Amino acid sequence: MFLRTMRAPIETDLGSGWVAAVRALRNADNDELSDNSSTELSDTDQQQPDIRTLNHDAPLPRTEIVVPIDHAVLHEEHHEEQHEQHVNLNYANDSSDQEMGRIGLNLSYPSYSEVEVGDDDALGDDLAKWANDFQVKQNATDSLLKILKDSGYPNLPSSAHTLLNTTRNVPLQNKSGMQYIYFPFARELVKNLNRYPSVITDAIDTLELSFNIDGLPLFKSSQKSLWPVLCGLANVKPATVFPVVLTYGKSKPDDLTFLEDMIRDLEYVLQHGLQFGGRTLSVTLRCIVCDAPAQALVKGTKLYSGYFGCDKCCQRGKWIGRITYPEILGIVLHTDLSFRDQSNEEHHKYRSPFCDLSIDMVKDSQ
């Protein structure tokens, strides 16, 4: 398109020039021309084409070749210049990449031995507390431990079992007709106190304990149940609850033998205190929390729905329509002394091991 656009005006101008020159030659007087003029004209005729043989449709070499070729050359030179700049730019980029590659090859990274490693023991304790507090699954904890071990903590354990000090083989005993596990009471107290920051434990002079005893059915398809004894630190915030006794078996224990170990250790800390952080903390019992059936079991008394089943008074009650109603006249209240002496024989079924503790068996077990 560019060649056709430039060709038309150039051919028209040059053709008009040729016609004017020929006309001038025809009108000139040949006689007045000198030999030199004739020679010059002859030379001109040899150099210029005859008007009769001039073909306007034929391509003109000087017109069609010179102008387009010059443009083509310029266009090609411009294209070559751009290509050269592009090549030079690519070469510069390649050189930069090669230079960066050479620099990257010379980089050295510190090994794990050169990295400052933190306190793995402290981190392990924090991770164990985190896993317990948020009930993290063991496979998730295992994956996190692997990442941390590869990131500069090689002394961390490899599994959640090791991190949480999970005992694989637990020795079981049989007490009260059930499988029985006991966690030493004083050791568990110290273990749970160590989880608190020193700013909290340093301000504690007395530990107030509360206990909960109750049955927990595990399966709908069987009568098997778990009877845990839980201890709580009542005056330490946030409150901590931990198991002391676990029993598993039929619907409920046959007797209270499963409480003997706990009561023995509890009586010791109530009398002598607890050694913690180079100090002796006094220990008191705030309460024992049970629902009505568990309370009757633990205290060795009749159930609340029977005659003489009231925990507050010694009255017999009145049976009306399958329900025992308390009387309101002539009420005699239970006391700690009357309870220990079992003065109201109809109220007691057997002696409770909690009578060995220095507690009020009426007020502290509501």
UniProtKB/TrEMBL annotation:
Highest rank taxon of the organism: Eukaryota
Comp. bias regions, Polar residues: 35-50
Protein name stated in the entry: Uncharacterized protein
Annotated region (Disordered), positions in chain: 30-59
